[in-house]
Specification:
By secondary structure, the chain is an all-alpha fold. Helices cover 61% and strands 0% of the residues. The relative contact order is 0.08. It is flat, with a radius of gyration of 17 Å.
């Protein structure tokens, strides 16, 4: 395991977005628009997870806010 996943007290994630040893991926990883696309996707995933957790913890509040309600 990696330290960031195993030996920390806070929630943590490790995301692999490409391989610099792959020429095609390395070229894209250097482009600002591609970096932004990756960052946006990561942020969207974190927000979706957070909203789902909030809805699971407090279904009434999620329903009032117009969000999804997990059962």
């Amino acid at each position: 395991f990696f330290y960031v996943l195993k030996d920390v007290l806070a929630p943590a994630i490790l995301i692999e977005v490409g391989f610099v040893t792959n020429e095609w991926e390395a070229s894209f990883l250097q482009k600002p628009w591609y970096q932004r696309k990756i960052a946006d996707g990561i942020a969207d995933g974190i927000l979706n997870f957070s909203r789902a957790e909030d809805a699971r913890a407090n279904p009434a509040a999620a329903e009032e806010a117009g969000g999804p309600v997990s059962k």
